[in-house]
């Protein structure tokens, strides 16, 4: 599902309207008609953006479904928690009578015990990569922009050697662990 800003949303962003919290504003900017909802949620997971935040923006008329896309932005919902303690449900999007999970349903089942899905690795590694490249200051400005532009595990893994060269092996160890362990 790809969401885009409405004219009302664009005006709210321009005017720094009070309908958007600072963390919602960060996510709101990423809804550019190119990124899917799951990509925006993955990129903003470290800030605590949830499906409920996105639903709030849709309900306020700040976001809408991209023309020609299928689904209904009004069907955004967080599922009821399963009976287990400590279980965090993944957000889903209800489309018609069926449900589609934003998490890679088959990836976790097919992965061996202890292995993590690429999306999980990306979510863990992205905040580390942005922090490492931000510490470089102007020297790492372009690398920081490249990291902020990645949309998934594969793109972040491709940038990893450049990050290692820029920050050194000692600082890179955290990112290495998040990406590959």
Overview of this protein structure:
The chain is mainly alpha-helical and 181 residues long. The chain folds into two domains: 3-70; 118-180, no CATH class. 50% of the residues lie in helices and 9% in strands. The protein has helices at 7-14, 22-30, 37-43, 51-59, 105-110, 118-134, 141-148, 153-167, 169-180, and strands at residues 3-5, 63-65, 76-77, 92-95, 98-101. Strand 4 and strand 5 (98-101) form a beta hairpin. Helix 6 (118-134) runs parallel beside helix 8 (153-167) and helix 8 (153-167) runs antiparallel to helix 9 (169-180). The radius of gyration is 18 Å and the shape is elongated. It starts with a strand and ends with a helix. Residues 77-113 have low confidence and may be disordered.
- Total number of domains: 2
Output mean pLDDT. 75
Q: Structural class of the secondary elements? A: mainly alpha
Shape verdict: elongated
Q: β content, as a range?
A: 5-15%
List low-pLDDT spans.
77-113
Q: How many strands? A: 5
Task: List the helices and strands in order.
Answer: EHHHHEEEEHHHHH
Main sheet record: 3 strands, antiparallel
Number of helices: 9
Task: Walk across the major sheet and give the strand order.
Answer: 3-4-5
Q: Give the termini separation.
A: 30 Å
C-alpha-based Rg, rounded = 18 Å
Helix-residue proportion: 40-55%
Helix and strand topology:
Layout: E1 3-5, H1 7-14, H2 22-30, H3 37-43, H4 51-59, E2 63-65, E3 76-77, E4 92-95, E5 98-101, H5 105-110, H6 118-134, H7 141-148, H8 153-167, H9 169-180
Antiparallel strand pairs: 1-2, 3-4, 4-5
Helix pairs in contact: 6-7, 6-8, 6-9, 8-9
